[in-house]
Amino acid sequence: MTPIEKRAFSYASTIIALFDEVLATKKNADRVIADYFRANKKHGAKDRRIIRETLFGLFRWWGWLQRIPAQPEATQQLRLQQLYFTAKLEQHPWQDISDAWASLAEFAAPSCTIVDVQSGCAWLNQLFAEGEFTAEQLVPAWLWPLLPKDFSEQEALIDALCQRPPIWARAQQIDRDVAVTQLRALEIDAASGPFADTLSLGHKSLNLQQVELYQTGKLEIQDLASQVIGQVCQPQPAQRWWDACCGAGGKSLQLASLMVQNGAGDGQIVASDIRPAAMNELAKRASRAGFNNIHLQAWHNDELPVSAASFDGVLVDAPCSCTGTWRRNPDQRWLDTEDTVHESAQLQLSILTKAAAAVALNGSLVYATCSITDVENQQLVSAFLANHPQFEIVELTHPFNGAQTKFLTIWPFDANSDGMFVAKMRRIS
């Protein structure tokens, strides 16, 4: 091997081992690669970038890569080919490494210019006439029947899922424009977003522990689609809100920040979850940001952890299949199954039904998921409303196209974000 081939082979061995570990253990790829880098501190910034981006690229294009024809007993060659195609499809800049992967695989491919899914598909069909590659193969077949019946943007969804999303964030307790100026001074690609506190931080990986705004709680990482949920809630300064499934607290922090933006008052947020570790993380983040109106209340069992009919607003950001985050977590496309969706829906309806009891008369009940499947979203809300006539649906305005809807879905192609669903209900009796 030449020196560059040795280096490329070393990368390949590491990436393939991590890829196989994710598939075998069903662990999130982010967690697997974080554990690897924690145990192997020898890698420099460039090494880490090549390993990380190629690993996620493998999952992003796995629907095609697993269809590349292979000769019997040529597994190593196939894997090296898959790494080469990943680098080409992702348009990675490490040309010397990708060429070395092709050389090691004894594979010669004509030069190509790939700009989107369609051109990548055409290139593979040119190379492998028997392959019959299609764009639909990049998404598990079981997903399509689970989307809303009127969904007709398959091509746009596939295109979005095959592009890396930007890093979205919120400014809190600080003017957004001031935050942009400070971040740009650190050579971070910061720009204003569509909401008053939204920022885009570009696509480059960031070490947030070196960013003072993040350390002092004035910057929170939160996807743009996720930020829509807080905008739908629109908590007012003197209101009481319950974040029934708070997790690590991103929505609780957003609600607190919006209360401040909407005026002075003594509003209160109660945040609940069944996971103590997640709530501990929320406590740290709230303290760092200087929010003293967020109170934690663990939800241990079927009994309501808060008083009934006592909140102006209840947010149920329910545990879900997370199909809306497949763009950011491409490994989940191939780890999840249709059963994951149906199991989530059963849990979601149970949580929503219990949490609804905490809504006061004329109060708001907001249901949200980071899923794009109909069974977890519109079907579930419709089933809830059919059994709870004391609630009515509230019409919403799509924040990115202005359409009026009772069931708001943010598709990944709507705003260069994750996918998200949200519905708002009002207690009328």
Written account of the structure:
The structure is a single chain. This protein is α/β, with parallel strands linked by helices and 429 residues long. The protein has two domains: 3-138; 224-427, 3-Layer(aba) Sandwich (Rossmann fold), CATH 3.40.50.150. 43% of the residues lie in helices and 14% in strands. It has 17 helices and 14 strands. The strands form three sheets. Strands 5, 6, 7, 8, 9, 10, 13 and 14 form an eight-stranded mixed beta sheet that branches. A four-stranded antiparallel beta sheet has the order 2-3-1-4. A hairpin with a 5-residue loop joins strand 2 and strand 3. Helix 11 packs across helix 12. The active site is at 370 (nucleophile). It holds the Pfam family Methyltr_RsmB-F. It comes from Shewanella avicenniae.
Q: What is the fold's blueprint, element by element?
A:
Elements: H1 3-25, H2 29-39, H3 45-60, H4 62-65, H5 75-90, H6 95-104, H7 117-127, H8 154-161, E1 168-171, H9 176-185, E2 191-192, E3 198-200, H10 212-215, E4 219-221, H11 224-233, E5 240-243, H12 250-261, E6 268-271, H13 276-289, E7 294-296, E8 311-317, H14 332-335, H15 338-355, E9 359-369, H16 378-387, E10 391-394, E11 396-397, E12 404-405, E13 408-410, H17 412-415, E14 420-427
Parallel strand pairs: 5-6, 5-8, 6-7, 8-9
Antiparallel strand pairs: 1-3, 1-4, 2-3, 9-14, 10-14, 11-12, 13-14
